[in-house]
């Protein structure tokens, strides 16, 4: 049941209800349509995309080839882009709310660098393979997040201190991985460099299913996130005044945000700027002034990464770019604009 009053609407499902802004509801619906459109385009563009007729009307050799191309390779990659983009958007919303800073995202704070360092450490000890790389990425990301929290903690967490500590930790980890690239064997250095570019190339159902299951479990935290993030966004002291245990909840949020980032980096490598841009874009298009929410950043992140992956595949004919290269280009322009905008305010 939906009951609209002025600029808000009340969504009811049994005993549960939530008040949402009508503009945010409409924007989220349009974003969801955009994600579905990007998914459809990813299935029909490129070689084999014009052979749907053979798939629908005949059990021919061409039909079986098209089915393998579309459903075995393209669909898994398209779903991975949408799901991983949503995870990055939520991670960005969490850290930007904790830090009260639009620059407070996993890539700026050093979680991506931590995941990269974890993979480098795994390769340095001679381990290889998907499971080892994934374990190294998850461990590195979580350890980096906890290190930043501990170093930034001083009778509580302040956003500015956490951003500064995160930048310092990121610089240290980047220096360590650069040293590894110089000293390591050529094959190990190349493997780390390929993973570090951030790519969805070669995504299959076997590769997607394990992180997708973990991501779906993490998405169940959206219910408490929908309560905690708006409270923290209005200020720690005000949130504490409402009875919220601010610092313990912040620690839980750091772990959840790191887990969302780790799920993506374990499979696709560090994909930059989606987590940075998605919450801010969501806030601007939904007209939100307090509370980044969860649906907006997740849908914007899913759309950004889906579109970036399409550009990575088809922007340059006969050239397949890593999606991380596309997000860096798009995000770099956004970061310059954001820094210029924040500079004018100060």
From TrEMBL:
It holds the Pfam family FecCD. It is found in: Cell membrane. Keywords: Cell membrane, Membrane, Transmembrane, Transmembrane helix, Transport. InterPro entries: ABC_BtuC-like (IPR037294), ABC_transptr_permease_BtuC (IPR000522). The chain crosses the membrane at residues 24-45, 78-96, 108-127, 133-153, 160-180, 251-277, 298-316, 322-340. Belongs to the binding-protein-dependent transport system permease family. FecCD subfamily. This is Iron-enterobactin ABC transporter permease. It comes from Galactobacter caseinivorans. The lineage of its organism: Bacteria, Bacillati, Actinomycetota, Actinomycetes, Micrococcales.
């Amino acid at each position: 049941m939906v009951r609209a009053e002025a600029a808000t609407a009340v969504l009811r499902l049994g005993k549960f209800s939530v008040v949402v802004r009508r503009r945010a509801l409409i924007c989220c619906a349009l974003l969801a349509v955009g994600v579905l459109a990007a998914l459809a385009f990813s299935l029909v563009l490129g070689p084999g995309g014009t052979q749907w007729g053979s798939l629908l009307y005949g059990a021919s050799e061409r039909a079986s080839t098209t089915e393998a191309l579309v459903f075995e390779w393209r669909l898994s990659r398209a779903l991975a882009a949408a799901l991983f983009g949503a995870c990055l958007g939520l991670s960005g919303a969490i850290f930007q709310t904790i830090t009260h800073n639009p620059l407070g995202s996993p890539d700026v704070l050093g979680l991506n660098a931590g995941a990269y360092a974890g993979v480098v450490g795994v390769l340095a000890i001679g381990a290889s393979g998907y499971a080892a790389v994934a374990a190294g990425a998850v461990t590195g990301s979580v350890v980096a997040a906890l290190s930043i929290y501990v170093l930034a903690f001083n009778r509580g967490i302040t956003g500015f201190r956490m951003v500064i500590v995160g930048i310092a930790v990121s610089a240290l980890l980047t220096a360590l991985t650069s040293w590894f690239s110089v000293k390591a064997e050529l094959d190990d250095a190349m493997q780390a460099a390929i993973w570090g570019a951030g790519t969805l190339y070669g995504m299959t159902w076997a590769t997607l299913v394990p992180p997708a299951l973990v991501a779906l479990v993490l998405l169940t935290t959206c219910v408490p996130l929908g309560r905690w993030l708006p409270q923290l966004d209005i200020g720690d002291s005000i949130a504490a005044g409402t009875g919220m245990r601010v610092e313990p909840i912040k620690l839980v949020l750091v772990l959840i945000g790191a887990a969302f980032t780790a799920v993506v980096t374990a499979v696709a490598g560090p994909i930059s700027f989606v987590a940075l841009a998605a919450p801010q874009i969501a806030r601007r298009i939904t007209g939100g002034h307090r509370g980044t929410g969860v649906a907006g950043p997740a849908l914007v992140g899913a759309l950004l990464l889906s579109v970036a992956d399409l550009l990575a595949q088809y922007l340059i004919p006969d050239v397949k770019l890593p999606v991380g290269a596309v997000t860096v280009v798009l995000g770099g322009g956004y970061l310059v604009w954001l820094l210029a905008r924040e500079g004018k305010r100060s």
